[in-house]
Structure formats: C-alpha cells, structure tokens
C-alpha cells in the first residue's frame, strides 16, 4: 500500500458515511429520550392524570356549583382543555430540561455530544422525545375528560395541531433552560419564575375577557395563551381568539425557539468545558 492510499483511508475515516442526515443516530437519540420517561411511566402517565383530576375536583368542590357558564359552556367543561394543555406543556418542558440538566450535572453530556450528530439532528432528537411525552399525556388526560366529564372533541384537528406545536415550543424552551442551567436550582428557578406564571396568565382557568385591559394585552403576547385557546377551540368549540391567529403566533414562536436551540447546540454554548 503506497502513501496515497494510506492518506485516502485516513481521510475517509473522518467523513460522514450516512448521507446528509444521520437518520439512525437521530432515531436512536429520540428512542433514548422516549425510554427515559417510559422507564418511570408512573411519573409520566399517572402523575399528570392524578394532578389533572385533583385540579378538577378542587375547582368543582370550591367554586364549581357557584360559578355560572363561561363563554356559554359549564365551567368544568371550560376548564378541562386548559388543564389538559397546561399538563402537556409542563411535561414537554420537563422532558428536555431534565435530560440536558442531569447530563450536565452528572458529567455524561459527552455521551450525547460525541456521536456524529449535527446540531439540527440533536435538536430534532430531543424535541421528538418531548413531543412523544406531550402527546402521550394529552391522550391519557383527554380520555379521562371524556370518561369522567363527557368532554369530547368538536374539532380534533385543532387539538392535535396545538398539542404538537405546544410540545415543540415547550420542548425547545426546556432545551434552552437545560443548556443554560448548570444546577438543578437554576432549572427550578426558570420553571417557577417563567414557565408557571406564563401558564397561569394564559387563560387556563378563566376567559381573558375577565382581565383588565393591560393584562389582556399581555395575554395576547403570550404564546401559551394561543396554545390553550387553540386546544379549547378544538375540544369544546369556543375560544377567545381565532385559532388561525394562534397557529401563526405559535408557529413563529416555535421557529424562534428552535433557532436558538440549534445555535446553542452548534456553538456548544454552556455544554463544553
């Protein structure tokens, strides 16, 4: 073997041999993320179902009998889509944020960064895992709402669209939080002071028409509001805004968040020592 052949072999060793996209690597990362939450299925499936049931029970006991119809539907019927969506976005956020934060804290983030995966492939794998968890939680709680409350779906397409977009958005925000946080305390702070307030100010438990005008303006700038409003439109046929406007706003928010995720992954921001 001459020197040219040796140099050619060495060059080949550093080349991508799986085409423009590493489908197998992306699928493997996604499957790992799914297995992460399925290994603790009681936390993934049962805990959200129990939490949603407790929310509905408490509101029924506390204010259900005294509260009149909201937007022409019984209060508990109005509340069910909000509880479902809030639970979905919380789980999608937790899936990616906990995965990245725990990998950084335990020092095994290198196991994710070393394989031949591009920044876009890494983001895709993590986001698909978050979407899978969000979709699973949505199906479980939707079945519970149908069985116990008789709340079905007027337009399932809007429910599917906004559950998927909400999971993508929150999975992306979870990635940003997980990359930025170097400790679990920092991750909890991001969740408590950013995600939770936005969720509670998005019309989960009320119509935003009841808010002061300045809070209504803030709600219309909140993507969480459009996610919850879109799911509510699909489940019970009423909403505070047009689902088409919500689709545009949430899609734009997803594009922005995913762009940040790609940029941080590509740069190795707060990932590499």
Task: Summarize this structure briefly.
By secondary structure, the chain is an all-alpha fold. It has one domain (22-63, 72-267). The protein has helices at 3-13, 23-38, 41-62, 75-106, 110-113, 119-148, 156-180, 184-200, 213-220, 223-236, 243-267.
Radius of gyration: 21 Å
Structural domains: how many: 1
- The proportion of residues forming helix, as a percent range, comes to over 70%
Average the pLDDT over all residues and give the rounded result.
Answer: 87
Q: What fraction strand?
A: under 5%
Main sheet, how many strands, which sense, barrel? none
Q: Which regions are unreliable across 5 or more consecutive residues at pLDDT < 50? A: 6-11
| Overall body shape | globular
Tally of alpha and pi helices: 11
String of helices and strands: HHHHHHHHHHH
**Would you report the number of β strands?**
0
Alpha-beta classification = mainly alpha
The separation of the N and C termini measures 40 Å
What features would you describe in this structure?
The protein is mostly helical and 273 residues long. It has one domain (22-63, 72-267). The chain contains eleven helices and no strands. It has helices at 3-13, 23-38, 41-62, 75-106, 110-113, 119-148, 156-180, 184-200, 213-220, 223-236, 243-267.
């Amino acid at each position: 073997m001459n020197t040219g052949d040796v140099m050619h072999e060495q060059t080949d060793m550093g080349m991508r041999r799986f085409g423009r996209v590493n489908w197998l690597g992306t699928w493997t990362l996604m499957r790992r993320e799914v297995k992460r939450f399925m290994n603790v299925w009681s936390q993934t499936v049962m805990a959200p179902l129990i939490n949603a049931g407790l929310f509905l029970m408490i509101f029924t006991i506390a204010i259900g009998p005294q509260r009149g119809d909201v937007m022409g539907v019984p209060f508990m019927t109005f509340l069910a889509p909000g509880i479902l969506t809030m639970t979905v976005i919380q789980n999608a956020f937790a899936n990616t944020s906990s995965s990245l934060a725990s990998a950084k804290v335990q020092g095994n983030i290198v196991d994710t960064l070393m394989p031949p995966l591009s920044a876009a492939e890494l983001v895709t794998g993590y986001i698909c895992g978050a979407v899978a968890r969000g979709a699973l939680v949505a199906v479980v709680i939707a079945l519970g709402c149908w069985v116990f409350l008789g709340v079905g779906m007027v337009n399932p397409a809007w429910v599917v669209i906004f559950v998927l977009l909400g999971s993508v958005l929150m999975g992306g925000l979870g990635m940003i939080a997980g990359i930025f946080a170097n400790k679990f305390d920092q991750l909890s702070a991001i969740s408590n002071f950013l995600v939770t307030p936005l969720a509670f100010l998005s019309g989960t438990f009320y119509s935003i028409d009841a808010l002061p005008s300045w809070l209504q303006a803030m709600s219309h700038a909140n993507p969480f509001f459009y996610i919850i409003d879109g799911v509510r439109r699909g489940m019970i046929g009423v909403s505070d805004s047009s689902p088409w406007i919500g689709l545009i706003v949430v899609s734009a928010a997803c594009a922005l968040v995913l762009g940040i995720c790609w940029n941080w992954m590509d740069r190795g921001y707060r990932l590499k020592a």
